[in-house]
Amino acid sequence: MDERSEAPARRRIALVVNGNPVEAEIEPRELLLDFLRHRLGLMGAKRSCDVQVCGSCTVLLDGEPVSACCTLAYEARDRQVLTIEGLADAGRLHVLQEAFIEHAAVQCGFCTSGMILTSLELLREVPAPVPEQVRSHLKGNLCRCTGYRRIIDAVVDAGRRLAAEGASS
Ligand code: FES
Ligand code: FES
Fold first, then answer.
1. Closest Cα to residue 77, out of 23, 27, 19, 33?
2. Among 36, 111, 131, 146, which is 20 to 30 Å from 104 by CA?
3. Coil, helix or strand at residue 64
4. What is the pLDDT of residues 46-74, one digit of tens each?
């Protein structure tokens, strides 16, 4: 028998997705994006370029943005994954989600989950960023629709609101 025709050994992994423990048997080559979309039904992360250029597939892995199109599901074992579906808290949208809606920073929506999750990481590092910081941080996330200004306005506004909440609490 030709060894090259043998199916690769499957691997059992455990991880936490949006706060929920998940266990699965996967092929070593299975991509995190396919795992999230096709196995877990989490369709928020989108496939566009498929080569780590556009950012539409971005999820947070232990709090860091990664391109799920170029990350193996196996690399997520024993780690925490956050997708856009896990951002709202008990049905209440995150302030970033609210700001994107209020600033009309969404058109087709294909880039939006990646934009928001990458921005979430920025706001954790820089609580109230100025537009240039937002622009720089989002340089790996491409949008074909909005021209970026509304997205940047939304992130700056969300940062201001979060900073104000922090100051008043
Ligand atoms: S689809 Fe992953 S970076 Fe474009
Ligand atoms: S809203 Fe369409 S790609 Fe950004």
1. 23
2. 36
3. strand
4. 999 999 999 999 999 999 999 999 999 99
What CA–CA distance (Å, rounded) separates 111 from 46?
Answer: 8
Paired strand residues for 25? 12
Length of the chain: 169
Q: How far apart are the first and last CA of the chain?
A: 68
Report which ligand 2 atom has the smallest distance to the Cα of 106.
1
Measured CA to CA, the distance from residue 37 to residue 35 in angstroms comes to 6
Tell me the best of 36, 51, 117, 142 to mutate to test the pocket of ligand 1, counting ligand atoms within 8 Å of each CB and taking the most.
Answer: 51
141 CB within 6 A, ligand 2? no
Residue 106 near ligand 2, beta carbon < 6 Å: yes
102, 58 Cβ separation under 8 angstroms: no
